[in-house]
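Milestone 3.1: sequence recovery, worked example.
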């Protein structure tokens, strides 16, 4: 039964992602908003809701390690799995945006802030407020930057009039389908894992983080296949920003998160390396299959270390 639920949930997830991309593109065209901004804000925050739900629930239940592990695992997977997949399947990757000049810092800063916060072993409620303020600063930066970016071409809507009456419920439905699909995918995958005797730790760092990263994976792949590379990359950068700031911040507001950094040493180091590799790729504009393979190698090391810890 769990296998059937898993397959159906994946189908719902893919369907929801397609609706989300389509309607988000229409909104971008309607208001002349660059696709990157849509990907880094609306879609990124929406696809980070599963991570937020999982981490808040873990924090509420006093399971700090699961809350933090979910974020670390999701950030690693977003870069090494999602971004790598985009590079490997997209035919021509020529982003309109200079991701290194404008976005690399926003991908790296929250990771560095996170490291500083866990030195004392606790992410406090004060730390949580600082993390949420950092996300607020990022959103302000994007909105101000959007004013100086070229408007999107409106010609695609000339024969298909935009309507909020149609777009709003479809957008909401797509987001709900993505979240529900991810939720039941995680639940069924966890049940399958338990039936095979896989440890709770592996389920947390791999199954839960992989499951909550499925919206980013599905949305980014769908966007890449439709040639919306800026939206795909924007979704990844924005999602990692949201994970490290909003997800951790919300979880820490519920209950301060106790973090044993030594237990997460390899995972934290992998997150740092993956983020630095993202900066390197954007700095040198290495948007190709070679970069995708490099990211897959990091993913392989991450998964291998986790499986060895069983």
């Amino acid at each position: 039964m769990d296998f059937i639920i898993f397959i159906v949930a994946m189908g719902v997830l893919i369907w929801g992602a397609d609706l989300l991309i389509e309607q988000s593109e229409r909104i971008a065209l309607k208001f002349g908003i660059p696709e990157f901004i849509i990907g880094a804000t609306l879609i990124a925050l929406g696809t980070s809701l599963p991570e937020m739900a999982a981490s808040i629930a873990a924090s509420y239940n006093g399971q700090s390690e699961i809350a933090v592990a979910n974020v670390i695992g999701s950030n690693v997977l977003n870069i090494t799995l999602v971004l790598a997949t985009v590079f490997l399947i997209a035919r021509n990757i020529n982003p309109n945006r200079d991701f290194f000049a404008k976005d690399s810092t926003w991908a790296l800063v929250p990771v560095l802030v996170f490291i500083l916060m866990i030195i004392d072993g606790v992410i406090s409620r004060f730390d949580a407020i600082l993390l949420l303020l950092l996300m607020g600063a990022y959103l302000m930066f994007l909105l101000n930057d959007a004013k100086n970016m070229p408007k999107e071409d409106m010609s695609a809507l000339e024969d298909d009039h935009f309507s909020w009456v149609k777009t709003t419920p479809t957008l909401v439905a797509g987001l709900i389908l993505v979240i529900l699909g991810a939720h039941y995918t995680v639940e069924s995958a966890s049940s399958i894992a338990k039936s095979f005797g896989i440890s709770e730790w592996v389920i947390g760092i791999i199954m839960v983080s992989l499951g909550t990263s499925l919206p980013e994976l599905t949305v980014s792949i769908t966007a890449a296949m439709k040639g919306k590379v800026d939206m795909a990359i924007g979704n990844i950068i924005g999602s990692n920003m949201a994970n490290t700031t909003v997800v951790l911040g919300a979880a820490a507001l519920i209950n301060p998160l106790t973090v044993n950094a030594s237990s997460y040493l390899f995972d934290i180091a992998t997150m740092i390396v993956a983020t630095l590799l993202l900066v390197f790729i954007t700095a040198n504009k290495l948007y190709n299959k070679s970069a995708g393979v490099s990211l897959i190698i990091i993913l392989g090391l991450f998964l291998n270390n986790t499986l060895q810890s069983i």
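DSSP finds twelve helices and two strands in the chain. Residues 298 and 304 are 10 Å apart (CA to CA).
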